[in-house]
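Chain A, query sequence.
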Amino acid sequence: ADPSTITSTGSTALHTAASVGASKEVIYALITNCSSNHSSLLNDDTTPLYLAAQNGFTHTVEALLELGADVSFAMPTTSYKGDYHVTSLGENSQKFIDVINSEPGNGAEAIHAASEEGHSEVIKILVKYG
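Chain A, predicted structure.
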């Protein structure tokens, strides 16, 4: 798979790596060797740093910050468009439809996500870089 691929929702290999707590080496390789962008937005509002902080992955958070991720990036407060997967359309039928999320973003930063989930070590790292 091409690590520079961006899906229709803006998801990248770096978003996936951040959300599963990939090692520093993987984060470094994606950014330095594969030109992944630590500022890319999933669904027009979520950075890899936000995902790593939300899940409490200290080593991933630190790697992203060391490589220049913006510790104070706030989720935009606009709505976004995305795909919605519907599976209950009858016998063995599946359909993807386009929808607009009418709930505006909340302006949260990575530190808010870490705080909501009780990830104190991540909070310490974010404060250090902030």
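Confidence is low (pLDDT under 50) at residues 79-90, 93-103. Residues 6 and 80 are 16 Å apart (CA to CA).
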